[in-house]
User: Fold these one by one.
Assistant:
Number 1:
Amino acid sequence: MTNTYILGIESSCDETSVSIVRNGYDEIATVVLSQMDTHANYGGVVPEIASRMHVESITIVIEECLKKAHMTMDEIDAIAVTYGPGLIGCLLIGTTFASTLSYIYNKPLIPVHHIAGHIYANNIGKQLKFPLIALVVSGGHTELVFMKEDYSFKIIGGTLDDAVGEAYDKVARVLNLPYPGGPLVDKLSYEGIDTYSLPLPLDDNSYNFSFSGIKSAVINTSHNLKQRGEELNKANMACSFQNRVVEILTKKTLRALKEYDVHNLIVAGGVAANSGLRDSLKEMCIKNNIELSIPEIKYCTDNATMIAAAGYYAKKIGKQADIDLKAKANDELN
Ligand code: KG4
Ligand code: ZN
């Protein structure tokens, strides 16, 4: 078999990343430059600052990645880039850079949806088994996706309001934790006990999610306690919040697996790093004879390895973009 080397570029939020992946699963080299420390000073990602930082670092990151891989652009077969969804100014840096490289070196340009990238993080070092259900949990998405085969995505449910990572980050702010708060709420939850009676979010027969209600319940409880001059027990609140969120994610995922008669579950996105969710899904999968795949933590958050991996399969089904590839802040998974 001839090898196919895909160079992936990811710049949709606050990580500038470039990676080279062989045949869709074999990581050759990856560089991730995170801007997290800068944005932490502002309590969240500042889009204008993020775009500027991508401009400053993208050339260096590409050179560094090629150097790490001991490869030249001539040995690359195609360039895959996140075209959306994400912060438009940030996406534009990646797509413009990728289009330019594709033009100069005469390489095919492969557009990759960011969530397809997160899903294919589960293909790094191994290969997806079909049919599968993907639980996508990130700062911008919460979706259940059915996949019959490579690069075929059927969204069976999604959030009606906040994404789960977004809810974590907002609850973290109420608990006075610095940005990004998701991992800190996760950690804190293990120091507390589940004492606050928060609602189980959107506990219905659909595959949709809603996290704005539970987020408001956390805010209201905190305000009410303050008015009464009582202290909020932050660890207990983190524990109650995490328990409820993990419970509903696990419950709806199990129902989807049963209804679609699927025995492979993959988890994708930044919140796949959540310890409570990982443990709960592991337990549920053992009980129900489901094979579970969760990426290593470094592949859960934004990185270009997953984009290069997804790019390989996108290319296989004929996805290719012209030099004028448009970045899209919002776009359906396809
Ligand atoms: O996938 P990602 O890196 O970026 C998006 O595409 O959105 O996800 C980032 C999100 C943030 O909201 C962050 O707080 C959350 O993932 N996150 C976590 C954990 N690690 C990252 N949320 C809960 N528990 C964690 N351990
Ligand atoms: Zn992401």
Number 2:
Amino acid sequence: MIYPIVKYGDPVLETPAETITEFDGELKKLAEDMFESMYAAHGVGLAAPQIGISKRIAVIDVTFKEDPGAKLVLVNPEIMKKQGKQSGSEGCLSLPDFRETVSRANVVTVRAQGLTGEWFETTGEGLLARALLHETEHLQGRLYISHISALKRDIMKRKIKKLMRAGEWK
Ligand code: NI
């Protein structure tokens, strides 16, 4: 099932999501639906609050279907280690058509649970490191625009308000 993507302005995006304790068929279905919704929206990462579900699960595929082995499901993820620095363009499916330069760590290690509840650690570099940070922050109710200057953020918010008034942001 493809869920519509929740856009900036919806409080669910800025609310810390709930820890997942049930590792059942329903969670597996949610992860499948999240991949489907992410691909349909042409994204490489999606967190459950972005489909209106305030639970600590995110999916990532920085290869966008090219490598099935690159598909990553993160349940209750925590950032364990950050190293180095990268600066690059970043966007978010909940803020369509906006992109900003964001500085991030270049190598990131995350500890998370899989769909059966087993804990694992994964380390990513470059785009994957960026996605691990971006999606984990979503589950904390934090958006990437918290990493840009207040001035740039205000300009973006003003543009979004304009789109909302025109009925072009829902
Ligand atoms: Ni996002």
